[in-house]
Amino acid sequence: MKVAIACDHAAFRLKEAIRLHLEEKGVAYHDFGIYDAGEKRDYPYASLYACRAVQSGDCSLGIVLCGTGVGVSMAANKMAGIRAACCGDFFSAKYTRAHNDANVLCMGERVIGEGLALELVDVFLSTPFEGGRHARRVAQIEALERGELE
Ligand code: RB5
């Protein structure tokens, strides 16, 4: 598993905390920046760079961060094949993997503390998709994306 991580300027500290956390756990990652607290980046670009790596298969999952987590999730969900979930609680982070097969976790540095964010990262990365009846619903999301859901 390789994880794509990226943030805008409102979430640099949280991205760095997550990067170090992945490092400590021995989880492979690709850091799509930003790389400095003084750097500025509009949040759609954080989604673009990380989600492109998920789309291509270079990374299996993504973690994208902004001030609220909402902007990056809205942008990420415009990209084909991306199922991004903005989470601020443990239950959602777990079940968006188990039931929605979410492939991108979005969080807001101005919303949740670092401790909770790292817990959400761990549960998101370790929870498998359950498939079964949930696969039918994910296929419906994919049909919706293609304009084919009737
Ligand atoms: C940047 O100031 C802020 O608007 C952005 O990080 C995010 O919260 C948008 O959804």
What this model shows, in words?
The structure is a single chain. The chain has 150 residues and is of the alpha/beta class. The protein is built from 6 helices and 5 strands. The protein has a 5-stranded parallel beta sheet with strand order 2-1-3-5-4, sandwiched between helices. Strand 1 (2-7), helix 1 and strand 2 (28-31) form a beta-alpha-beta unit. The structure holds D-ribose. Residues 8, 10, 43, 66-68, 70-71 line the site of D-ribose.
What's a quick, concise take on this entry?
The chain is α/β, with parallel strands linked by helices. It has helices at about 10-25, 45-55, 70-75, 90-100, 115-125, 135-145, and strands at about 1-5, 30, 60-65, 85, 105-110. It has 6 helices and 5 strands; from the N terminus they run E-H-E-H-E-H-E-H-E-H-H.
The residue-averaged pLDDT reads: 98
Describe the strand arrangement of the main beta sheet, using strand numbers. 2-1-3-5-4
List unreliable stretches of 5+ residues: none
Query: How far do the termini sit from each other?
Result: 35 Å
What's the number of helices? 6
Bound compounds, please? D-ribose
Which features does this protein show?
150 residues; alpha/beta; 5-stranded parallel sheet; 6 helices; 16% strand; globular; binds D-ribose
Secondary structure elements and pairings:
Blueprint: E1 2-7, H1 12-25, E2 28-31, H2 43-56, E3 61-66, H3 70-76, E4 84-86, H4 90-98, E5 104-108, H5 114-126, H6 133-145
Helix pairs in contact: 1-5, 2-3, 4-5
The chain binds D-ribose (RB5).
D-ribose binds next to α3.
